[in-house]
Amino acid sequence: MVSKGILWFVVPLLLMQCNTPQNNEAQGPTFSVTFTSDQSAEPLDGRLLVMLSTDDSNEPRFQIQDGPNTQLVFGVDVEDWQPGTPVTIDVSAFGYPIESLSNIKKGNYNVQILLNKYETFDLSTGHTVKLPMDKGEGQQWNRKPGNLYSTPQKIEIDPASSQKIELSFDQEIPPIEPPTDTKYIKHVKMKSEKLSEFWGRDMYLGANVLLPEGFAEHPEARYPLVIMHGHFPYDFGGFRTTPPDPDLEPDYSARFDVHGYNKIVQQEAYDFYKTWTGPDFPRVILITIQHPTPYYDDSYAVNSASQGPYGDALTYELIPFIEEKFRGIGEGWARFTYGGSTGGWEALAVQVMYPDEYNGCWAACPDPIDFRAYTSVNLYDDKNAYYLDSEFKETERPGHRDYLGHISATLKDMNYRELALGTKGRSGQQWDIWQAVYSPQGEDGYPKPIWNKYTGEIDKEVANYWKENYDLSYIMQRDWETLGPKLKGKVNIYCGDMDNYYLNNAVYYTEEFLENTENPHYDGEVDYGDRAEHCWNGDHDNPNYISRLRYHRMFIPRIIERVKDNSPVGADLTSWRY
571 in a domain, yes or no? Predict the structure, then answer.
């Protein structure tokens, strides 16, 4: 971290730390950026980005991605940036997918700048860190309220010149209006004492609560609680009390190659409303939870060295708070979890780490649950995350594929995008949050890197810390003698065998262990979708673009069957059955 009170251009230092080549002698464009005292009377900290795009279809800030259609971004850290004082982004700034401004093509670009603001946190560990606080948007740097940005300008840029381009902010992303309560959907927010103590300021948890039909008419009823884990949910999605909008213009989903997908989504949401309120659907409380952190759109629902005790805060603060407020049964046998991708990992993780507090998980396409297959890297045996081990040949590891195996991004690509968006694990993106969750805290207060972000060299000491604390497959194997009896019948995992992020490989390792468990046998389910991409959830009858909208209808009936067979003597099995 640079010294306070001094304006540093941090990226050259970053590059030296990451063993990256510097190009201070090269010619190239220079961007000089200022802000006014009207925009902020106080000095600013953050990540300053300049984005260049040749695609006129959208603003550059919405065009930075892992795939081949990405546009360009270059970034520098700023600290104690004073109003009216210029910050320079030049050829030394790290960029993605082109590392230096000196190497871009000559041409006309849509140019846009954005400052992802950082705030100061005095952690209970004794460290002071600067991080981007979530502002209700789910940790999205290009949509975060309060971030400054500029209207895109068309500028001709020649990398062979020493062109100087002066830019300033003329926009600020506005606040987000909170969602409103309805008859069925309620929104709760609570201060977490555990998290507030760790972060050195008030920190909050929230949830979107879907109440069962007849909740008001049956005040004597107490209900099981079902938690759907996943990315930050602004509201309770997938529930609609009216038919699809007849005037909605059908769109096209490139992900699923389906026309009119927006209408399909609305129809499925309306169908779920009819199912939820129908006479035969189980009466439960269904929630999605809000736990964004300064590192990502959610915490991964476990305790960690750099993010604090989110697992304990969710399990022992938020969930009891909701159960008390909405008449939940409030016991472990009556709590269940499911989710996909991030939510799949979280569903399994809370079941493994809090085995008595939950009575079953259904984990679809989970993030890596065995770090021998951390997507396409074996953290324990491989030397480098970006390249296959070889004496003479550099072959990049794949990062994203389609169901035919066609690769659109490598692990190096993905991590370089994050490095351009933020140093010290502050990009707010996927690889950085895994590191923030799983790593020990470094001497600077930030997560200790699992690998050198520029070279890809893996730190085996950090990898071993990950193994002992967050490798869910390994933890189950290591502790099966005591953990197994508590997990019997509770572990269910689903994944497509052509998952876009190679998540099926970790599931194979985990299945191999689970199927050979004894005393007790795990007595759950592991299943795969043939040629199914991310995020297959166990439905063999419908395409993925439909089944991903039907988690609740798929899993809640299974949950109720488990309640019948695995509830303690004297448990309330009647008040919520009407």
Answer: no
Chain segment 68-93, per-residue pLDDT in tens: 999 999 999 999 999 999 999 999 99
Q: Is residue 573 part of a domain?
A: no
Instruction: Give CA–CA dist 286/137, Å, rounded.
Output: 22
- 322 and 300, same domain (yes or no): yes
Alpha-carbon distance of 3 to 222, in angstroms, equals 55
The pTM for the full model equals 0.94
Taking only the tens place, the pLDDT of each residue in 93-144 is 999 999 999 999 999 999 999 999 999 999 999 999 999 999 999 999 999 9
- Selection from 545, 534, 539 nearest residue 268 by Cα: 545
For 460, the domain range is: 375-468
CA distance 109 to 98: 15
Contacts of residue 502, defined as CB under 8 A and 6 or more positions apart, other chains included, come to: 373, 375, 376, 398, 401
Contacts for 51-56 with beta carbons within 8 Å, 24 or more apart? 51/111, 51/112, 51/113, 51/114, 52/104, 52/109, 52/110, 52/111, 52/157, 53/109, 53/110, 53/112, 53/152, 54/107, 54/108, 54/109, 54/110, 55/110, 56/110
